[in-house]
Write a structure and sequence with these properties.
Blueprint: E1 3-4, E2 11-12, H1 14-27, E3 32-36, E4 43-47, H2 71-75, E5 83-84, H3 86-97, H4 105-123, E6 128-129
Antiparallel strand pairs: 1-2, 3-4, 5-6
Amino acid sequence: MGLDTTHGAWRGAYSSFSAWRNAIAQAAGFTLKEYRSPYSNSVLKYPNIDSFDLPPTAAMGDWPEPPFDPLLVLFAHSSCDGVIHPEHCKLLADRLEGLLHRLDDDNKALTVRFIDGLRLASSREELLEFE
């Protein structure tokens, strides 16, 4: 079991998606925040976006207007549910493309695949769905 998205953007373990998202956050200058899982004694990390005023629907991909940094669409998003709207797909793809030079080869390959999926969804004016 893991995360699959439409348009071929992602297919893999939730933990891999989380690690990739953290690598993107660090490449963009965001800090990571630690969180102790209530289900195990493990400490998880995720992009620290607590200081941003996010809409309550952001985790499902619903934004009343695009955030000032398109990466927030990715960082606030649920890792197992929701959508990214076509207009956000293009903005997010452009922002991720600008970070490619800061990523190691593995994360760069994952990012290129995600960008390709975002661009495909945007070009078709379709939702990129998290399943």
